[in-house]
Amino acid sequence: MRAIGLILLGLSLWAGIWDAAGAGPNVAGDEVEAAFDEANRLYEQGDYEAAAAAYERLLGAAPGTASLHYNLGNAWFKAGKVGLAIWHYRAARDLSPRDADIRANLQFARNQVGASEQVREGRLGRWVELLTLDEWGLVSVALFWCGMAGVVVAQLRPGNRGSIRFWARLLMVAWLGSVLALGWVWHGQRGQRVAVVVAEGGIRYGPFEESQIQFTVPGGAELRVLDTREGWVRVEHARRGSGWMELSLVRIYPGS
CB of 234 within 8 A of CB of 226? Predict the structure, then answer.
C-alpha cells in the first residue's frame, strides 16, 4: 500500500509540474475581446490585410490558440499571402491536429503552391501527429505509471503474478511506443525548422547578393532549414537541392 501511495503522490506532483510548465500566461479581459471582435469585423468587411494585422497584434497580447492562428491563416490567404497563410495553418494544426477545417485549409493552400514545393510528410507522421505534443506527453506518463502500478500489484498478489506481469510488460511496450511518438512529434514541431517562403525569391549558391541564383521558388513553398547566417538562411528544396535565401523572404517555423 505504501508503494501505491507513492505512485499516487508522484502522479499528483507530475500533474502539477506539467500544468505549471505547459500553461502559458492566461491573458483575458475586455480589451483582448474587443480587439478580437475588431479583427473579426475587419475580416467580414473584406479588409483582409488590416484584419490579419489586428490578429497578429493579438498574438503579442494573448497566448497563441488554434482559432487565432486559423483566423490569421484565413485572413492572409484572402489577402493573397499564401506563405503567411500556410505558416499560421501549420501553427493551428500543431495546436489542434484533429480539426478537420484546419487540415483542409492547410491542404487547400498547399495545393495552390504545388506538391513539389512542400517538405514531404510521411503517412506514419500524419497518424502520429493526430495527437499534440502535450497529449503524447500525457499518454506517455500515464502508460509509464500504469506499468509501474502493475509491477507493484504483481508483488502484492503472488497468485496472479503471471497474468499481471504480462499486462505490465504490455503497458511498458506501449509506453516505449508512446515515447517514440513523443520524440517524433517534438522533432516535427520543435526540432525540425521549416522556412515558409512569404514572397517569391531566388535560392542562391552563396549567402551574398552577388551570388548567382540557382532557381526561384514561389510564395508558399516550404523548405527545410539547414543553417542560418546574418540576414540569410540555407534551405533545402524537396527536389532541387540546397542553397541560400534572404531571410526577409521567408518565415521560419516554428518561431522563436
Answer: yes
Answer whether 235's CB lies under 8 Å from 243's CB: yes
In 3-state terms, what secondary structure has residue 1? coil
pLDDT tens for the 256 residues of the chain, in order? 344 343 433 444 444 434 444 444 444 566 778 888 899 999 999 999 999 999 988 887 766 789 999 999 999 999 999 999 999 999 999 888 889 999 999 999 999 998 777 766 655 555 666 677 777 788 888 888 877 777 777 677 766 666 767 777 777 788 887 787 777 666 665 556 888 999 999 999 999 999 999 999 999 999 989 999 889 999 999 888 899 999 999 999 876 5
- State yes or no: cis peptide before 97, omega within 30 of 0: no
What's phi and psi for 73, nearest 5 deg? Answer: -60, -45
Instruction: Indicate the pTM of the whole model.
Output: 0.69
H helices of the chain, in order, are 2-22, 30-44, 48-61, 66-78, 82-95, 100-113, 123-128, 133-156, 161-186
Rounded distance between C-alpha atoms, residue 256 and residue 242, angstroms: 23
From the CB of residue 133, how many other CB atoms can be counted at a distance below 10 Å?
18
From 89, 57, 87, 83, select the one nearest 71 (Cα to Cα): 89
